[in-house]
Specification:
Blueprint (H helix, E strand, L loop, with lengths): L10 E6 L2 E7 H7 L11 E5 L1 E6 L14 H10 L1 H4 L3 H14 L2 E9 L4 H7 L2 E7 L8 H15 L7 E7 L7 H14 L3 E5 L3 H9 L3 H6 L11 H7 L7 E5 L6 H10 L2 E4 L1 H6 L7 H6 L4 E3 L12 H12 L3 H15 L17 E5 L7 H10 L3 E6 L2 E5 L4
Parallel strand pairs: 4-5, 5-6, 6-7, 7-8, 8-9, 9-10, 10-11
Antiparallel strand pairs: 1-2, 3-12, 12-13, 13-14
Helix pairs in contact: 4-5, 6-7, 14-15, 14-16, 15-16
The structure holds zinc ion.
């Protein structure tokens, strides 16, 4: 299933030096390349790897804070940061492994000051770590932005070819307007990318509109909350919305006018519906955003707000939530994420010239909606092998 073209029966993908050099019928590809080593996956479907457009690696299963309200959850998370230090690296390795075994080939990861970059870089996945910075821990907005720019330059040294580092302006309630604006301008000047969390919770909407509520209680607000506009309008006013930016969530309080702003500015969106459900943050208007031409990808978020790092499982949830077809879901999980991150020339479909980022999914049964069957299989533990840039980094079939 190349995604960019109709499914093929008895198809083949020819890989050379990490790139796809042919996609077609096995018989034709085999005849034209007689000396090539062939690996057969009978009763399996080859699809592009999952592109996770918003994830956090540094959380572990089982002991997530309660999702009662977003601010209670976040308050507990902040309280437990000192305890978390002891196990963040192990959690990041485990989460990366889980993601790979669920067919992820590219991950956009966000972590404080890029702390999970080593685990992403070692995992074998391609991806980008977006380093979150918290200006109140650093100094003036100028000092804070200088410091995170220097940090990201340092993170970029010695990385594998397909692993990168960028900046995340964490959220409207943790980063002040001036630091946000400066980070947006500096990154744009340098041709860097940006990740943000935006319009995630009812409390974020309240924080920005009136400067009150659970988030204002935690972050001492009123300093810059209470500006009387929606999170989307606020983010636009501090210049965060641009084609280079990926905004996660857009779950609560996204009006039709906000959707127009998102579409006009060209910002991309990462949809994390299971995290939104766990934290009672509402339902992102994804079909309306897609209809407005907004680039949407899928994100698992992290294990403290989401049950797994399986992006296909996340996507199946979205398909059920929004009444989408299996084909639309598979596209969201692969090409959609690649477009949202601006890497669609490199990955996201099975097309000649792109990296060979492939997933082999066990799909012996047939049903009416073939794409839906493949998505369900991949969501339900059916990923048999994961290949990144031609390297088989996971293969439970042994073939
Ligand atoms: Zn997040």
């Amino acid at each position: 299933m190349p995604i960019s073209s109709p499914p093929l029966q008895d198809g083949a993908v020819l890989v050379r030096e990490g790139r796809i050099v042919a996609v077609g019928d096995l018989a034709d590809v085999g005849r034209e390349n007689p000396d090539t080593e062939v690996r057969f996956f009978p009763n399996n479907t080859i699809i592009p790897g999952a592109v996770n457009a918003h994830a956090h690696l540094g959380f572990r299963r089982k002991d997530a804070p309660e999702g009662a309200t977003f601010s209670e959850w976040l308050g507990t998370l902040i309280e437990r940061l000192p305890e978390k230090e002891a196990w963040t690296a192990q959690a990041a390795s485990d989460c990366a492994r889980d993601a790979i075994e669920a067919g992820t080939t590219y991950m956009a990861e966000s972590s404080p000051y890029g702390e999970c970059l080593p685990q992403l870089a070692e995992s074998g996945m391609a991806g980008t770590v977006y380093a979150e910075f918290f200006p109140h821990e650093i100094g003036t907005p100028e000092e804070a932005v200088d410091s995170i720019v220097a940090k990201v330059r340092e993170l970029r040294e010695g990385l594998p070819e397909r692993v990168g580092a960028q900046i995340s302006v964490h959220s409207p309630y943790t980063v002040d307007p001036e630091s946000s604006r400066l980070a947006a301008r500096r990154t744009r000047e340098m041709g860097w990318k940006l990740a943000i969390h935006l319009s995630e919770s009812p409390e974020e909407v309240e924080f920005l509109k009136s400067g009150t509520g659970g988030l204002a209680d935690i972050f001492g607000a009123n300093e810059w909350g209470g500006v009387g506009v929606s999170p989307v309008r606020y983010a636009q006013s501090v210049e965060l919305l641009a084609p280079e930016t990926i905004a996660a969530h857009l779950a609560t309080g996204v009006s039709e006018e906000d959707i127009e702003v998102l579409a006009q500015t060209g910002v991309a969106v990462a949809h994390c519906p299971r995290s939104n459900a766990y934290l009672r943050c509402g339902f992102s208007p994804v079909p309306a955003m897609i209809a407005s031409g907004i680039r949407v990808g899928m994100g698992t978020d992290g294990l403290w707000s989401s049950p797994s790092m399986n992006l296909f499982e996340e996507t199946l949830f979205a398909v059920q939530l929004h009444g989408m077809s299996g084909a639309a879901g598979l596209e969201l999980a692969t090409l959609g994420g690649a477009r949202a991150l601006g890497i669609e020339a490199e990955t996201g479909t099975l097309e000649v010239g792109k990296w060979a980022d492939l997933v082999v999914v066990e799909t012996s049964q047939e049903n009416g909606d073939t794409e839906r069957a493949v998505l369900e299989a991949a969501a339900g533990g059916g990923v048999a092998a994961t290949i990144v840039g031609g390297d088989m980094i996971y293969n439970r079939l042994g073939t």
